[in-house]
Amino acid sequence: MVNAEAIIAYVEQLVREFAPPRVVRFGSYASGAPTPDSDVDLLVVAEIPADTARAAAAEMRCRTTHLFPLDLLVRTPSMLRQRLEWNDGFIADIVDQGIVLHDTADERVGAEGRRRFRDRLARVAVA
Questions:
Q1: Are 108 and 18 in contact (CB under 8 A)?
Q2: Is the backbone of residue 4 left (phi > 0), alpha (psi -120 to 50) or beta?
Q3: How far apart are CA 14 and CA 100, in angstroms?
Q4: Which of 12, 36, 73, 118, by CA, is between 20 and 30 Å from 51?
Q5: Is the Cα torsion angle 82, 11, 66, 39 positive or negative in sign?
Q6: CATH number corresponding to 4-126
Q7: What is the mean pLDDT of residues 56-70?
Q8: Structure confidence by residue, pLDDT tens digits, 16-55
Q9: Where do the DSSP E strands lie in 46-113?
Q10: Which residues, in sequence order, are bridge partners of residue 100?
Q11: Where in the chain are the domains?
């Protein structure tokens, strides 16, 4: 399994390189139920042309260093709003259950999310 510090260090690298306004951890690591086969799922909210989301995710993966399986989902704020209006359950789950690891608008949110994430993974490591 990937430890919390490695994921947080990757998010910090992503923020330095691309300056996204928000990064959200979702999936098994956010829920506190990762397995040895789990990848790291991150939603990166970025102001990019909507039709370049896949290319932006590929560029982020190529220009950053990660030593664990990684799934980056890049979306614009308007894309997220639209998917939520369409009742997209996948995006709704990320918004409701994900852990914010970085938020430019309010650093306290990211700091609290990182603390909660560390605590959640520490409980998994002990179990």
A1: no
A2: alpha
A3: 14
A4: 12
A5: negative
A6: 3.30.460.10
A7: 93
A8: 999 999 999 999 878 888 888 889 999 999 998 878 999 9
A9: 70-75, 99-103
A10: 24
A11: 4-126
Q: Name residue, tokens 């260093």.
A: 65
Contacts of residue 54, defined as CB under 8 A and 6 or more positions apart, other chains included, come to 74
Query: What would the two tokens of residue 6 be?
Result: 């490695």
pTM of the predicted model as reported, rounded to 2 decimal places: 0.87
Start-to-end CA span in the chain (Å): 13
Reported as a single tens digit per residue, the pLDDT across 75-99 is 999 999 999 999 999 999 999 889 8
User: In the chain, how many H helices and how many E strands?
Assistant: 6, 4
At CB < 8 A and 24+ separation, what contacts does 49-52 make? 50/76, 50/78, 50/79
Q: In this structure, what token pair is assigned to residue 82?
A: 């639209």
**Token pair for 76:** 């614009």
Tokens 């309010």 identify what position?
Answer: 106
| CA angle (12, 28, 13) in 5-degree steps | 10
Q: Which of 120, 123, 125, 117 is nearest to 9 (CA)?
A: 117
Note whether 38 and 88 are within 8 A (CB): no
d(CA 104, CA 6): 21
